[in-house]
Amino acid sequence: MLHPIPPGTRDVLPDEMLELRRIQSALLDVFAEYSYREVRTPTLEYADSLELGDRRSADAAYRFFDDRGELLALRTDMTIPIARLVAGRLGGVEPPHRLCYLANAYRAVTPQRGELREFGQAGIELIGGAGPDATAEVIEVLSRALTAVGLDRAVIGLGNAGLWAGLLVDCGASRETAERSSELLVRHDLVGVEAVLREAAELEDAHVEALIEVIGLRGGGEVLDRAATFGGDRFTSALGRLRTTSAAVADREIGHKVQIDLGMLRDIGYYSGATIEVYDPTVGEIIGGGGRYDDLMGKFGVNLPAAGFTLYIERIHKAQIQQGVSGV
Amino acid sequence: MFDALRRPGGPLKLAVPRGALLEETLMLLDRIGIDTSGVRGDSRSLVFDGGELTLVTMRPYDVPTYVEAGAADVGITGKDVLIEQGDRPVYELVDLGIGRCRMVLATQKGDPGPSEHQRRLGMMRIATKYPRIAERHFEQRGRQVEVVEVKGSIELAPLVGLADGIVDLVATGRTLAENNLEVREEIVTCTARLVANRVSYKIRAEEVDDLAARLRAAAEPAP
After folding, report:
1. Rg of chain B over CA atoms, in angstroms?
2. Helix axis angle, A175-186 relative to A161-170, nearest 10°?
3. Can you give the residue range of the structural domain that contains B28?
4. pTM here?
5. Do B158 and B56 fall into the same domain?
6. B185 and B212 co-located in one domain
């Protein structure tokens, strides 16, 4: 007799479970090699704590009252719970903190899209490590993790959250132009961004052309050289940080896996510097993401720079199968 | 050929919309040197070798679904479809200028008009194939409507009393006129767009950019 489970959730049977476990243990081995130590946080949190991190992205889909009338929520990612954990539990420990996790997270889904409400994540957080070298360390661990699960052709996209905002300010964009164009860029509507910029009376034509070109720049180091001709102080400073990060990544001999992407603007609000997306040629969705969020810890009362990434376990498994990585 | 469809690599797969957009799309592809003879032929196939591109034909409404999943790397479809499925994360790269039409609110000729329904009933019933566009349009203006989704022949709905008005796409306005309907409000003008899968846009950046640049140039009106 068949008893249903909610759409977007699933049971895992032994054959698949073995393969998922293999992915998880390969990832944990890599994390351990770089001295990242595993932590666990509760699946249920106070909704208030999650919202402290970032109202928009942490907007939990599943909330309910407990027996005492407290509003609880299922976490949407692990970055915010770990920020809370570090602020509350590790105050006496000298940073940097190198932490990793294997956990399920929960998000709302649109019906009939094949999306998961409950999905597995594996990732690391480097909290208290500042600057390009810490970011490069995170990218190195990510690169090694992808190799460990057999995804040799995966590409790590590297952007910087300050580039677009900086260039808009440098070009004298009004607040409204900045908000409207950024919202469209997050949704990847480049036609819409171009229309907003061309309509904006305050922007000079040359600036409009520069903004439009920058969005489309993605590739190797030549992208940075091309962009160096644009913008003013803010853009140059963000571009400088991206250049340093990119050089630090190249020093670790993983530069060939990284695609510099000046048009990347992620929809999660807490990123402050480098942003990361992970692509695999066999999967149509991103298989992981991350970046630098130097202001997030401050919201939990501890001012520490931070960076990290997360990989989506089910999508990695899908990529493995597409590429013929052998089963158990 | 069918093996190549599943493997990444090989030519980019372009989702081509069948229906009203097809002819203009093929003319545009001809102009940039893509072989469209297969699609133009009377084959029942859905997949065609276009030389540097593999052409995958489908209904315009399905294009975002295929492109979002990466089953097609790039695709061409109307802005109306993209607005209606705005939650699908695909890159929107080029306004191709073809398939220009208007999304409108229409009601029967001689009807007292939407405001009268609104005044007396507090709301009106709208039939549409575009429930999200319709809901958003009225919501942003603070007007209460009941949106009824239908799949085809929207013009029928007000004639037999299913709805007070319709929200639909109009190119020439002939169908409306023949069904005794007239345009009351313009909601948005739509043209066809080139869209790209999120991952293909990154991993196959050069090919996607090259195709976008050529289509952009071909789409520009002749000087």
Report:
1. 20
2. 150
3. 2-99+191-219
4. 0.91
5. no
6. no
Using the beta-carbon criterion (under 8 Å), do A191 and B95 form an inter-chain contact?
Answer: yes
Count chain A–chain B contacts defined by CB atoms under 8 A: 56
Q: How many CB atoms lie within 10 A of CB A21?
A: 12
The per-residue DSSP string of B88-119 comes to S--EEEEE---S-EEEEEEEETT---HHHHHH
Residue B163 and residue B106 share a domain: yes
Does B198 share its domain with B88?
yes
**In angstroms, rounded to a whole number, what is the distance separating the alpha carbons of residues A13 and A2?**
15
Question: Number of structural domains, chain B?
Answer: 2
Domains detected in chain A: 18-175+212-322 (3.30.930.10)
CA angle A159, A162, A164 (to 5 degrees): 80
Q: Which of A268, A272, A274, A277 is nearest to A303 (CA)?
A: A272
**How far apart are alpha carbons A28 and A38 in whole angstroms?**
8
Judge contact between A125 and A79, C-beta under 8 A: yes
For residue B32, the domain's CATH number is 3.40.190.10
Interface of B with A (CB under 8 A): 8-9, 68-71, 86-87, 89-95, 193, 197-200, 202-203, 205, 209
pLDDT in tens, chain A (328 residues): 889 999 899 999 999 999 999 999 999 999 999 999 999 999 999 999 888 877 665 567 899 999 999 999 999 999 999 999 999 999 889 999 999 999 999 998 877 777 889 999 999 999 998 888 999 999 999 999 999 999 999 999 999 988 898 889 888 999 999 999 999 999 999 999 999 999 999 999 999 999 999 999 999 989 999 998 887 788 888 899 899 999 999 999 898 899 999 999 887 677 888 999 999 999 999 999 999 999 999 999 999 999 999 999 999 999 999 888 766 5
